[in-house]
């Protein structure tokens, strides 16, 4: 958010580049009321320079060998699994 704010406040000189991601362009605007920048209104030109995939990594000792297995395990054991994500901070238990 700090970098996105600096890029939004910079002079439109053609030398400033923001490599935004879902956190700065989608999640933060949905979570925070005062970002200090508007990712839609303040954008001058847009270009997609890269795609980033998501992945789920599970400890091999966990009896889940697929996403379906993991969802089933979470439903059968509410509050027992933890996870980490780059999204907004909250209780990481499922």
Written account of the structure:
The protein is mostly helical and 94 residues long. The protein is built from 3 helices and no strands. It has helices spanning 2-9, 22-31, 67-76. The longest helix has 10 residues, at 22-31. The chain is elongated and about 55 Å long. The model has no long low-confidence stretch (mean pLDDT 79).
Short structural summary:
By secondary structure, the chain is mainly α. The protein has helices spanning 2-9, 22-31, 67-76.
Question: Which short descriptors sum up this protein?
Answer:
3 helices; mainly alpha; 94 residues
Q: Mind telling me the C-alpha Rg? A: 18 Å
Secondary-structure-based class equals: mainly alpha
Low-confidence stretches: none
Rough outline = elongated
Described by strand count, sense and barrel closure, the largest sheet is: none
Give the number of helices.
3
Terminal CA distance reads 27 Å
Annotation, overall tally of beta strands: 0
The helicity comes to 25-40%
Mean pLDDT: 79
What's the order of the H and E elements? HHH
The portion of residues forming beta strands comes to under 5%
């Amino acid at each position: 958010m700090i970098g996105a704010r600096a890029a939004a406040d910079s002079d439109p000189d053609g030398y400033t580049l923001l490599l935004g991601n879902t956190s700065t362009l989608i999640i933060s605007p949905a979570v925070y009321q005062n970002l200090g920048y508007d990712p839609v209104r303040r954008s001058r030109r847009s270009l997609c320079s890269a795609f980033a995939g998501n992945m789920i990594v599970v400890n091999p000792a966990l009896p889940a060998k697929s996403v379906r297995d993991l969802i089933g395990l979470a439903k059968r054991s509410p509050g027992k699994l933890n996870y980490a994500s780059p999204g907004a901070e909250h209780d990481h238990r499922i």
